[in-house]
Design goal:
The chain is α/β, with parallel strands linked by helices and about 210 residues long. About 25% of the residues lie in helices and about 30% in strands. Strand 6, helix 4 and strand 7 form a beta-alpha-beta unit. Helix 1 runs parallel beside helix 2 and helix 4 crosses helix 5. The two termini are about 25 Å apart.
């Protein structure tokens, strides 16, 4: 069992649950949050994103779903051990156990690599169980009209991401690249869209974690 400290919270990570990375930390600081919002993490893993968002706004209502039973159990345990309330489901996004049109913010650190790409960061980083289209469809169903969907993705797939978001009525509104230094090209891009939002895109300065 590994333990990470997300001040003021503690995150427990048993073997087999996706580890905490710089992409999750960056996304937790990027997404828009406001008082009393209902938040849903698609593919919540250990629940790290929920803890990061709760630290920024204590009035959030937390909800998560993950296909992996161990991950879902870990996320629920991490909420409980930090004396937080929230609902974590075990299930496939394609079967949509999520409340429709319910959330002010949907967030995800999803699989990055398509099955045709020849690349893989392991089974939790390939689209074997959740494609980009399935993810965006689930986010669009779950978000309120005017609700937001924030995620991180690979820069080389940005065109795929933006066109898929629009196809599912999620209008891209904010983009921020993430790089290791000013001398390096971005290794990550974070995008926030609004369900049935008007066109108009804000491109933020590159984040150097």
């Amino acid at each position: 069992m590994k333990t990470e400290f997300l001040d003021p919270f503690t995150l427990s990570l048993p073997e087999g649950v996706f580890p905490l990375g710089s992409d999750t930390l960056a996304l937790g600081g990027f997404a828009t949050v406001r008082r009393n919002w209902k938040v849903c993490d698609l593919g919540c893993g250990s629940g790290a994103l929920l803890l990061l968002l709760k630290h920024r706004e204590s009035s959030l209502s937390l909800f998560g779903i993950d296909l992996d039973p161990l991950s879902a159990q870990t996320a629920q345990s991490n909420l409980l051990s930090n004396h937080l309330e929230g609902t974590i489901l075990t299930g496939n996004l394609r079967e949509s156990k999520l409340p429709s049109g319910h959330f002010d913010l949907v967030i995800s650190n999803p699989p990055y690599f398509s099955l045709q790409s020849g690349k893989s960061g392991g089974p939790k980083r390939s689209e074997e169980t959740c494609t980009l289209e399935q993810l965006c469809a689930a986010a669009s169903r779950a978000a309120k009209n005017g609700g937001r969907f924030a995620l991180c993705y690979r820069p080389e797939r940005l065109t795929d991401l933006l066109t898929t978001l629009r196809h599912y009525d999620l209008e891209p509104k904010r983009i921020q690249p993430v790089a290791h230094s000013t001398a390096h090209a971005p290794f990550l891009v974070m995008v926030e869209s609004v369900r049935q939002g008007k066109p108009g895109l804000e491109f933020l300065p590159t984040l150097i974690p």
